[in-house]
Amino acid sequence: MVETAIEDVYARKVFDSRGNPTIEVDVVTVDGFGRASAPSGASTGRHEVVAFPKGGVDDAVRIVNEDVAERIIGMDALDQAAVDFMLHEVDGTENFSRIGGAAALAVSMATAKAAASSFDMPLFQYIGGLFATQLPYPLGNVIGGGRHAGDKTPNIQELLVIPVGAKTYAEAVDACFKVHREAGKIIGASNHGFAGGRGDEGAWAANLSDEEAILTLVKACDKVESDIGCRIVIGIDVAASSLWRDDKGGYWLRREGKLRGREEHINFMLEIVDKYDVRYLEDPLHEDDFEGFSELVKAVGHKVLVCGDDLFTTNPARIAKGIEVAAANAVIIKPNQVGTLSDAYEAVKASRRGGLTPVISHRSGETEDAFISHLAVGLRCPIIKTGILGGERMSKHNELLRIEESLENVKAMAELPIHLRR
Ligand code: 2PG
Ligand code: MG
Hints:
alpha/beta; Enolase-like, domain 1; TIM Barrel; 2 domains; 8-stranded mixed barrel; 3-stranded antiparallel beta sheet; 14 helices; 16 strands; binds 2-phosphoglyceric acid; binds magnesium ion
């Protein structure tokens, strides 16, 4: 008989990839052990749960070691829903503002890991069962801007690629690295001040306008496509809430030092979609502009994945609203935006009910924890967004390579939405 009762929980302060403190939690069952840590965003959505309590990480650590410990010890690690419900109860607020979403998520994930470990079972199989055998496609970040990179970089936060023609995760991630390398060469050849700098997720941080960056990406993809014969499509994460100025009623373009009105911004989005065959468009508009999103879906939703990140903040109610007004056809799933695994799963279910594609995602501030790799396979999500270079990004890629290897003959790449298949 496997014993899954939780015997102990212990929280500590660790650091993320930006050198900021975050929380790590160990959960010990009679027969298993799980350790998980919480990431953090730079372009956070207004509707995310609160990451840390008033007293910061130290307070979060104390709350887990005292208040959560008191409740969780003796609970069954197999009962994820009960543990997550308990976290909401201990917190007692709508948005995890008392204990912090980071603490809640670290406990939630460590519990799932401890349960899986009790059975000596890979985490993705524990999450997804017998038929969790499909690998997601990586959404690789090649050129960075916005809040993830310096002053002269593009306004668009992320210029991305999806190697849709790849037959395996190994092939797909290799194609991402090749495009990244090629883009670095192109930037180096034309941009004399470029010293090889990179932003928060390992993407190039270069002095480029939005269109120059997209063009660089297109060229790099063309070269790699012809070298390795694997079809690669491009996408962007505008992270438009970071550009939006409520008081001025427009999008502030830091590079150009000018304000772009809403209509002009929507037209710019449509123009670049057409001109560069952009297939994935994340947060093209600010987080409360459901109407603008709907307009974009109406115009290009048949050929482009219009994805809500700050728009939805992994929140089932906001996703339901988005479905009602057809504001998107894809949803970013970031567990730390809602605070527990059960909440993130609700968001995935809500997305699927409305025919929206779930995209499992990291944060720009990450730890070495590779939980989301298992989550993507376990929940059969077709796309994983996990940056490009750096140990904290590589831990996710490498874990997916290990998962792929372990699946041997039964493995397959996930089914992509139609927008990315043409
Ligand atoms: C995003 C993410 C991750 P952040 O906007 O999609 O790339 O950035 O974690 O800073 O919100
Ligand atoms: Mg985003």
